[in-house]
Structure formats: structure tokens, C-alpha cells
Design brief:
The chain has a six-stranded parallel sheet. Strands 11-16-15-14-12-13 form a six-stranded mixed sheet, sandwiched between helices. The longest helix has 17 residues. The protein contains 23 helices and 26 strands. Among the domains are: 213 residues, Rossmann fold, CATH 3.40.50; 116 residues, Immunoglobulins (Immunoglobulin-like, Sandwich), CATH 2.60.40.10. Bound molecules: beta-D-glucopyranose. The site of beta-D-glucopyranose has 7 residues, from loops.
Length: 764
């Protein structure tokens, strides 16, 4: 029997007509179709349903894969793929079972949530987006692809492109912030980085755009919560990055946990079929999120069999961990609730993905144990991660040029984030090998070796309440100090007493953000604030490093601390990268891609909002009765979208257009001069926004439409241009037609979404 099975697998492979890449010509497409049609003609219904099944990998022990539940299911042909296993050898064992023990020898898709790097970890995606550097972002995805493919992974559950305006939602850390234009640029860059030219290379992996759709609008920022949104808002504000990723050729899409128009995304035919496949022409496959078909019943809709049938009919191809497809679709077929055609369509899409990845040519393409030894966490990859991390930090305040610090004297590094290497990489660092990473303390010591002394104290726990701290350190990154908060504080003050300058490493822990990490209080926990106040009371210069996976509320800090650098979670090389910026080897250039609120009550606060009929007069900061404003807080966030300082200063001048009219087939060029007026070389991201002054529906007060980074030496000026065409003015109108409406437009240029120069033109 064994021989027959092996023969079947070998026969399939040797008869393979696969060519390892996305077909780019009709002939190649036809070849793929023929191959898959041939394969499907040999598949039983059970084998077909097996391809649609994406179970978790469980704990596979190297050398014993065949004895694991998943190994047995793979041998029975009941598994299309699995995810989040680390180790090329282990994965090879599993693939071998699929190839040699399952009747048809169809290889598995092996996925992983590599959302900001594999072992070389880059900043969390929110931090990455603050680089505004698409080459750097693409590079980070390329390096991630090269490392994960060396580790046996061919499919990443990334990019996560959910727009979010609610920092209470912990998953904001996984996305690119609040802006559809920037989010779309990032989405494209990441897909390019992961998939390479055509998935043909052995270091190309398939992207999975998630979470389709609108997940970032979970009500009240509570994870997995309801979403309810107008189509106008979906199309104009939330859909753009998903569409951009699809247009860039992303091979797969993951549906979201939330409802869309009252129907869970996973079984929402309008979303998955009308929008994704028909309007956007998506040709890849759709996978559910973890267990979401099973959750349909909990939302108060159908039970598992019905939900599985509806999900398939809606356009879902692969069931992650609900076991609804494999467990119930056969019966649904018998009962006429789904058709053979619908099952076949889904199967074909999964097989196409495997074909495009080249797995039919070489099922072990991603199981090169030698590459695993040589291509992961290399010096070159780490150097790139360090440089990119340094670009992601946002300098929020730098009164009296406290930063950069001189490499001399005695530097006190104090705070709960100062000596915890495990808390550097940030959420979803599935493949991270944290033992290899440095703590910030080590980074500082290395940077100052032979030049200055570093003294250290923890200063406080993350939270005084151990239960709160435990909730933020769930994956074993335990950082709790058993001493009392008073003892910790006293020690810190004694250490600080002998120092020339204090660096306070404060904020959130890695798992304070990410999935299932919603928060209602975004201020610094009380014990850390008490520490910070005590450090400031020493009268020494204090620099605050804010570790965060979201915009936190820094209202008190911004009023009281001279220098604040937001360092997000910078990845495996964060410690060195932070030292690079703090001690001036790198001039910070990151800019916020989310608004940082004054307080939680302002949320949602975002720059590209619609106007009200009663806007507040911005010239008058006091409360204005019968105007749209708060009695107790400003409308504006503390730090706006696009904001970020440098160690040098820039001046914007001479903003002009080459014409004040734009023809429907023409262009207008906006030009601004940027001058480095400070004393250091720096990189400045110049931003251009547009406002459609009057539309057939209300239009945002401004929308980012272009940006460009320039390097400027002290005293140097450069002009930066934005060539505006009617395409830049298009939006989805009331009928969801994508139009540019004639009339008046404002175009703005500046260093962030608040400080802008304005010009006007008319679209004819
Ligand atoms: C998350 C996804 C992730 C999946 C697989 C889910 O809980 O929502 O983002 O890709 O798990 O790990």
C-alpha cells in the first residue's frame, strides 16, 4: 500500500507542468489551468475539502511530526495548509508527509504572522509607517520574506492595512495609522517586498492582506467589536489600502472578524464577491481569520454548517481553524445548500496559490535547512533593521535642544522599559529569538563604551497593580520586580543623583498593544508618572523615551518634560537604534501617521475629518457656545498627523502653483521651497494635502495626496514639487462613482497636517 501511495505522489510531481511563478502570459495561465484541472479531476470530494482546511499547527516536535494530530490529518489529505510553526526541518517533515503519505501528494501552504520581520525584527508596522519611507518599508518586507522563506514559510499574514482612528484599539500597532493614502503606499510597498517580482524566487512569499474589511473601526476601540459604517466612508476612507494591496498583486486576503452591514465579513457576499472580486478584480484566495466561521453563531447568526455554506458561497476559500468547511460542507452539498462548482472554485484558488509559489515544482522549495543557517538574522539584515528603526522614531519635543545627548559624563537610564530585551521587538514577533536581542541598557553601554558611564535603575514597575501588568506581559515577557514601588523609586533617585542627565524609558510593554489589547486609559500608568515627576524634580535634564504600540496620551509629559522621543517598539535592533538617535549618530526624521490625542475623550480624532456646519473658529482657543467644540478640551490633537521634529529646523517658503486652473486632461504643479535653517544635516518629509472646497457630498477638510523626503545640509534649500492631475482629486460620490468634480480646490504644503501653506486652483 505504501508503495502505491508513494508512487501516486511521485507520479503527480513528475507529471507536473508547473512553472514556479505567477503566470504572466495567456500561455502560462493556460498551462496552470490545465495542470490544476488535471489534478482536480483526480481528487475526491474529501480531498477537495481537505485543501480548504487551515488548522492550527499544534506543537510539532522535530522528528515526531507523523505522530502529531496535524501530521496524521495531513497524511489523510485533510489539510490544505497550517501556520505559525518555526523551523525549516520541522516544516520539511510535515511537507514530506503531505507529499509522500497523502494520496495525491499535494504540498501544504505554510503560513506565519510575520508582520514586521522574522528573527530580524523591524519596528512594529505603526512605527514602520512613521518612516514615510517606502523603500525602507519594502526592504523590511523583503528581508522578512528572505528570512521566513529560509525558515520554511511561504505565506505571511501581512500586510495588515486596517485604517484606524482609535488608539484604544491595541491592533493599531499592526497597521499604518489613520490615512488611506499613506496606508495604500505602505500596502503596495509591503506586497512588493514580500512577493518579489512574481513569487518565482525561493525567497518570495505570498502576502495576505488583512483584515478585510474595516476591522480598525471596531466600536469603542474594543477588539473584535461591532463595526457599522456608511458605504461612502468605506469607499473613501477605509477601503483604499486593501484595494492598493490587491492592485499590487497580493495573492491572498484574510477576512475580518467584524460585521459589515450586520453580516460577518467571512460570509459577506457583497464584500467578498461584489467588492473584492468583481469591482477590484481580485484573483487570489480568501482565508478567514482564526475561527471566524465558528463565531458567526456567536454574533447571533447561523450555526456552523449554515455559516460554512454561506461563507463558501460568499467567496471564502479557506477556513482557518473553524473546521466548518471540512466538517460540514459535504453534507451541505448533499442537501443542495452549496454546489460542486462553488467547492471547486475554492479548491482551484488554493491550488493556484500553491502552483504560483512553485510548490508543485518543488514542494521543498522553502525547506532549505542550509539557508536557514545562513540567511537569518544576518549582520546585513540587522544593520538594515537598525537603520530603519532609527528612522521610525518620532521626536515629539526637544526644548532647549536637550537631545542629542553628548557621549560624556554620566547618563542615568531609568524606567521599566530600560532593561527588558524581550520587550523591544513588539507584538506579533512570532519568530523572534529574544535571547539574541539587546536591552536598551546594553545598547547604551555599547554606544558609550570608553566615553561615558551609564548608571541604571528600574525605577518602577509597568503598573503598580500586578494584575494589570500581568495582562500586558501575557507571553512570558515578565518584567515584574518584586520590590515595592517606593523601594524602586528610592533606588532610582539615588542612581539619578550622581548623573548628569536622565533618560527615562517608560510606556507600554510589548503586549500592551496588538491583538486583544484594548485600553481605555492611554496615559502613562500612575507609578511611571510618579517616577517621572520625581526624576524631573531633581532639576537635571530629562529625556523621555515613550515605548508604545499606539498613540498614547502625553499631555502632561509634553507640558513638563523637556524632550520626548516616541520609540514605538523598534524591533530586534531597537536598543542600538535608540542609542543612535539619543546620542546623535542619527538625526531623527520620523513623523506621526496617527494623531496623538489630548485625552481619550477626543477619540476618534483624525486630521482628515469632514467639516461640521458649525466649525469652531480656529483663531480663538476659548470655548465657543453653539459651535462644534468641547468645553474641556481642544478639538485638535496634542500632536497632529504628519508631525515630527528633527535635530535641525526647516523653513517652508515660496509655495506656488504654475497655474490656477486645471483642465480635465491637464496638470498643475505645486512647488514649495524647503530650507534647512539649523546646524545639522537632516531628512525632511514634505507633505502635500488637498481640499475639495465644495463637493456634491461633504469632503474632508484636507487629505494627504503626496509626500516626498529630501535630505538637506545646513543652510541648503531644495524645491519639492507635486504634479496634480484630476486623478488626485477623485473620490467616491453619493452613487459610489469615482469622480473628480469641477470647482475650487485648495492645495497645501508643509511639515505636518497642521502647519501648512495654502494655494488655490480650479478644476475646469
Ligand atoms: C488574528 C490574525 C492572525 C491570525 C493567525 C488571528 O487571531 O486576528 O491577524 O493572522 O490570528 O495567527
Amino acid at each position: 500500500m505504501k508503495n502505491i501511495v508513494t508512487f501516486a505522489a511521485t507520479a503527480l510531481l513528475s507529471s507536473s507542468l508547473a512553472s514556479a511563478a505567477i503566470p504572466s502570459t495567456p500561455a502560462e495561465q493556460e498551462k496552470m489551468d490545465r495542470f490544476i484541472t488535471g489534478l482536480m479531476s483526480r481528487m475526491t470530494l474529501d480531498e477537495k475539502l481537505g485543501q480548504l482546511n487551515l488548522p492550527p499547527s499544534d506543537d510539532i516536535v522535530t522528528g515526531q511530526t507523523i505522530d502529531s494530530n496535524i501530521g496524521a490529518a495531513v497524511a489523510r489529505g485533510q489539510v490544505g495548509g497550517t501556520f505559525n510553526i518555526k523551523g525549516a526541518e520541522k516544516i520539511r517533515d510535515l511537507q514530506k508527509i503531505a507529499v509522500e503519505k497523502s494520496r495525491l501528494g499535494i504540498p501544504l501552504l505554510i503560513g506565519m504572522d510575520v508582520i514586521h520581520g522574522y528573527e530580524t525584527v523591524f519596528p512594529i508596522p505603526l512605527g514602520l509607517s512613521c518612516t514615510w519611507d517606502m523603500d525602507a518599508i519594502e526592504r523590511s518586507a523583503r528581508i522578512a520574506a528572505s528570512e521566513m522563506s529560509a525558515g520554511g514559510i511561504c505565506w505571511t499574514f501581512s500586510p495588515m492595512v486596517d485604517i484606524s482612528r482609535d488608539p484604544r484599539w491595541g491592533r493599531m500597532s499592526e497597521g499604518s495609522g489613520e490615512d488611506p493614502y499613506l496606508g495604500s503606499e505602505v500596502a503596495r510597498a509591503m506586497v512588493r517586498g514580500y512577493q518579489g517580482k512574481d513569487l518565482g524566487g525561493k525567497d518570495d512569499v505570498m502576502a495576505c492582506v488583512k483584515h478585510f474589511a474595516l476591522y480598525g473601526a471596531s466600536e469603542a476601540g474594543r477588539d473584535y467589536n461591532t463595526v457599522d459604517m456608511s458605504r461612502y466612508r468605506m469607499y473613501n476612507e477605509y477601503f483604499a489600502p486593501y484595494k492598493a494591496a490587491v492592485d499590487a498583486g497580493a495573492g491572498s486576503v484574510m477576512s475580518s472578524f467584524n460585521l459589515v452591514d450586520g453580516i460577518p465579513a467571512t460570509e459577506n457576499k457583497w464584500l467578498l464577491d461584489d467588492v473584492l472580486r468583481r469591482q477590484w478584480d481580485f484573483g487570489g484566495f480568501v482565508v478567514t481569520d482564526y475561527g471566524s466561521i465558528g463565531e458567526v453563531a456567536v454574533h447571533g447568526l447561523e450555526d456552523l454548517p449554515e455559516a460554512s455554506a454561506r461563507s463558501l458561497k460568499a467567496g471564502t476559500d479557506m477556513d482557518m481553524c473553524s473546521f466548518g468547511f471540512i466538517g460540514t460542507l459535504k453534507k451541505s452539498l448533499e442537501e443542495g445548500k452549496v454546489t460542486q462548482d462553488e467547492i471547486d472554485t475554492a479548491v482551484r484558488r488554493i491550488l493556484e496559490a500553491k502552483y504560483k509559489l512553485g510548490l508543485f515544482d518543488d514542494p521543498y522549495k522553502y525547506n532549505d535547512v542550509e539557508r536557514e543557517k545562513s540567511d537569518i538574522y544576518t549582520e546585513a539584515n540587522r544593520a538594515a533593521a537598525r537603520a530603519i528603526a532609527a528612522k521610525s522614531f518620532v521626536l515629539l519635543k526637544n526644548e532647549g535642544n536637550v537631545l542629542p545627548l553628548a557621549k560624556k559624563g554620566r547618563v542615568a537610564l531609568i524606567g521599566p522599559m530600560s532593561n527588558s530585551a524581550a520587550n523591544m521587538p513588539g507584538t506579533w514577533s512570532v519568530a523572534a529569538d529574544k535571547k539574541k536581542y539587546k536591552s536598551l541598557l546594553q545598547g547604551f553601554r555599547d554606544a558609550l563604551a570608553g566615553k561615558a558611564e551609564v548608571v541604571w535603575a528600574k525605577g518602577s514597575n509597568l503598573y503598580e497593580d500586578p494584575a494589570l501588568e500581568a495582562a500586558c506581559t501575557v507571553f512570558g515577557n515578565d518584567m515584574r520586580d518584586p520590590r515595592s514601588e517606593k523601594e524602586l523609586l528610592d533606588e532610582a533617585l539615588a542612581v539619578a543623583a550622581g548623573a548628569d542627565v536622565i533618560v527615562a524609558a517608560l510606556g507600554e510593554a510589548t503586549e500592551s498593544s496588538g491583538e486583544s489589547s484594548s485600553k481605555t486609559d492611554l496615559t502613562l500608568p500612575y507609578t511611571q508618572r510618579r517616577l517621572l515627576e520625581a526624576l524631573l524634580a531633581t532639576g537635571k535634564p530629562v529625556v523621555m523615551l515613550n515605548f508604545s504600540g499606539r498613540p498614547t496620551v502625553l499631555t502632561w509629559e509634553s507640558a513638563n518634560v523637556p524632550a520626548i522621543l516616541n520609540v514605538w517598539f523598534g524591533g530586534s535592533e531597537a536598543a542600538d537604534a535608540i542609542a543612535d538617535v539619543v546620542f546623535g549618530d542619527v538625526n531623527p526624521s520620523g513623523k506621526l501617521t496617527v494623531s496623538m490625542p489630548v485625552n481619550v475623550g477626543q477619540i476618534p480624532v483624525y486630521y482628515n475629518h469632514l467639516n461640521t456646519g458649525r466649525p469652531k473658529n480656529p483663531a480663538d482657543p476659548s470655548f465657543q457656545k453653539y459651535r462644534s467644540n468641547y468645553i474641556d478640551a481642544p478639538n485638535e490633537p496634542l500632536y497632529p498627523f504628519g508631525y515630527g521634529l528633527s535635530y535641525t529646523d526647516y523653513n517652508y517658503s515660496d509655495f506656488h502653483l504654475d497655474s490656477d486652473t486645471l483642465d480635465s486632461d491637464g496638470a498643475v504643479t505645486a512647488t514649495v521651497t524647503v530650507t534647512n535653517t539649523g546646524s545639522r544635516e537632516g531628512d525632511e518629509t514634505v507633505q502635500f494635502y488637498i481640499r475639495d472646497v465644495r463637493g456634491s457630498v461633504a469632503r474632508p477638510v484636507k487629505e494627504l495626496k503626496h509626500f516626498e523626503s529630501v535630505s538637506l545640509k545646513p543652510g541648503e534649500s531644495k524645491t519639492v514639487q507635486f504634479r496634480i492631475t484630476p486623478d488626485d482629486l477623485r473620490f467616491y460620490d453619493y452613487n459610489l462613482d469615482y469622480v473628480a468634480e469641477p470647482g475650487e480646490f485648495e492645495v497645501m504644503a508643509g511639515p505636518d497636517s497642521r502647519r501648512l501653506l495654502t494655494q488655490k486652483f480650479t478644476l475646469k
